[in-house]
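USER:
Make up one protein:

ASSISTANT:
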Amino acid sequence: MIKGLKICGVSDPETLNYILNHNHKPTMIGFITNFEKSKRFVDFEKLKDLINVDKKQVNFVSVLVNPDDVILEKIKDLDFDYYQLYDVNPYRTKEIKSKFKKKIITALTVSNKDDVIKYKGYSEISDIILFDSKGYHKSESFDHSLLDDVPIELNKMIAGNIQIDDIPNLKDKNFIVDLSGALEDRNGKKDINKIDELLNLFKKYET
């Protein structure tokens, strides 16, 4: 069964409000916090207002690419449950977790087996290991069969251009599933109808 669902790249209050008031809420919602190249990036002042809501028991995730202490100090009092870290080595990950007292999702970008086994360096530090594509902010794909040897007991998440129609194929993989681009219209804005379709479908396959 699918262990959970994350909707990533939410950047406006209307979409967030819709998700939080849906009958079948996701496990997590992700917000792009410091990666300005992403069309889903939310600047700090807007982010403060955006996430100052009743979370309805949904976990909020700050998505961070190689964050320095300046941004971490800036966001430390915002109501995030997890920091999702890209391009952060194990030592720095442990340092961030200890200092800021947040649960950690370590994001590994994958194109081959060598990328996958990097999880071993984080398995004792991070709360979740996310396997994503190399072009993560562009919603690119990778070969999910590369993950076949990852231990079943590892708390893991999968991303990388996953489509709504892929959900039934992931039902036996024991992953948290992370979608973003598949939920957007041609202009890159989150599509409420697609989100509704996903949340109703997820309900059938969640643990």
